[in-house]
Amino acid sequence: MSITIKGLARELNLSVSTISKALTDSHEISSETKQRVLELARKLNYKPNPYASSLRRRRSKTIAVVLPAIADSFFSLAINGIEAAASDKDYHVLIYLTHESFAKEEAMLDDFQHGRVDGILISVSRETAQSKHIQDVMNNGIPVVFFDRIIEEIATTKVTTNDFESSYQATSHLIQQGCKRLCYLGISKDLSISNTRMEGYKKALTDNGLPVEESNILYCTNEDEADFQLIKKTLKGKKRPDGIVASVEKLTTPVYVACEELGLSIPDDVKVLSFSNLYTAPILNPALTTVTQPAFEMGQKAAEILLKCLGKKNSKLDNESIVIPSSLTIRASTL
């Protein structure tokens, strides 16, 4: 049976308060008493309970990370960055997955208002079109930092990459490689990140004298089979695209599989690039051209900002946008 702080107090005939202050090296306790407490604690192998002490301080030393998915390598890398920052400050990290569901996201944030976590890092779901649930948790004194997928109107810190510029550069690259009919694969009409990337795609077309055709903008779903059928149908059409910009990583697989089934060659018949952090991108057949996002750095930066806020009493997050640039990595799928 493990010894508790009450057990130490009983053994030394001291109050629990005195034991607690001695263990935290309080100036209120004499050196002699501290020595007695520490010696007995070592002898009995006393281990402090971080959760009990955090409840007394009304702090959990825990941050929540709310994500739409972790199958995407971007979020896996971002979690590593978050963990790196949190461990430096002795914070615990709890991962919550919405699976792209607004209802789940809303329920999670409502649950957080009961003191389970000290702060929240969030990348919103594809279904998230309003922000009341996030504003409510912030009004309850829990700081929130956005990363990657954000809601513009919420006044807090947001860590993103240069989505418009990256999409513009990627689309321009396809045009320079000879593409005339480019297809954009999005995931949501409401999600700002998807729309920002789409605007970069549109601007590149316009600047290069190519028409923006709404039929070439496809909104995919959260269902793999449905996405595959939609992409396959598009590639079978009379006005088949000769270039594809996938706004998220998960849409790369159905594109490659559809091309394989239809006997289309990448990059001869259709050139393909994606926003992606896939480790396997260089070994796909052909190797995939990617907009490579600074996922680890974004997660780490977002966590550092949140933890800095939590480390200062009455500190508030700035309403600011921090942009960490992505890079275009050109490989065989577009050459």
TrEMBL record:
Coiled coil: none annotated. Keywords: DNA-binding, Transcription, Transcription regulation. Pfam families: LacI (PF00356), Peripla_BP_1 (PF00532). Residues 3-57 form the HTH lacI-type domain. SUPFAM superfamilies: lambda repressor-like DNA-binding domains, Periplasmic binding protein-like I. Gene3D superfamilies: 3.40.50.2300, lambda repressor-like DNA-binding domains (1.10.260.40). GO terms for molecular function: DNA-binding transcription factor activity; transcription cis-regulatory region binding. The keyword DNA-binding applies. CDD domains: HTH_LacI, PBP1_LacI_sugar_binding-like. This is Transcriptional regulator, LacI family.
